[in-house]
Structures are given as C-alpha cells and as structure tokens.
Amino acid sequence: MSAVAVVGQPAGRQEPSGGGDVLKHSGGAWLRAAGGADGMCTHLGPVKSELETAHEGLLAGTGGLTAMAELGAVRDSWTRRFEAARGECRALAGKLRAVARVQDETEETVRSALASVSTEPSPSARDEAR
C-alpha cells in the first residue's frame, strides 16, 4: 500500500504551470505498519516463558543424557532469537512512526513555503502596471 497518492486539483483551481495533479501524502500506511510491528512484538512477548514452561520437568530423571544438554542449548538459542526479533520489531515500529512524523513536518514546511509565494501580483504591482 502506498503512502503517497496523486489526486486531481479541486474544481476551479488550476496551477500556473497548467498541471492538474497534486501530490498528497498520508501517514496512515506508515502508522499501520508500525502497529503491525508492535503487534508482532506483543505476539513474541510470552514465547520465552512458554518455552521455559514446556521444558519444565524435562531434565528430571534424564540423568546425564547429552541430548538434554543439547535441547537446553537449542532452547537458549531460540530464546535469544525471539528476543532479538522483539527488539527489531520495537525499533522498526519507532522508525516507521518517525517516517510518518517527518513526512508530515516536511509537507507542512513545503505548504508554508509555497503559501508565501503568491501567483497573483500584489496590489502595488497591479497599480504600477496601470
């Protein structure tokens, strides 16, 4: 989904260059993506405790089986990976929100700059032309 759309000019308004389209930005797609990253982070949250619960009691009665040590190493590896994925999701959500915020600020800056440039001559310029 795109966060940018080209739309026609409002009725009765035409740019001096003759162009009829305006580039519009929407932060909605960026914010939805940030929400998705937050959701993934939340979804991964309980994984560590679920893995620990699933492995409770496994070591009891297994004596010195090396497979249990290997299973523990695999569990630890997955725990690290899930925690890393949660960290990436948190960081990504923040970055996506920052993109939406910066685009909004940039759009406002451009709008303000363009508003200061009038396409109609000032009243004093019209008087001098007469």
Textual characterization of the structure:
The protein has 130 residues and is mainly α. Helices cover 64% and strands 8% of the residues. A two-stranded antiparallel ribbon has the order 1-2. Helix 1 (28-44) runs antiparallel to helix 3 (66-115). The longest helix has 50 residues, at 66-115. The radius of gyration is 29 Å and the shape is rod-shaped. It starts with a strand and ends with a helix.
Structure in a nutshell:
This protein has 130 residues and is mostly helical. The protein has helices spanning 28-44, 47-55, 66-115, 123-129; strands spanning 4-8, 21-25. Helix 1 runs antiparallel to helix 3 and helix 2 (47-55) packs antiparallel against helix 3.
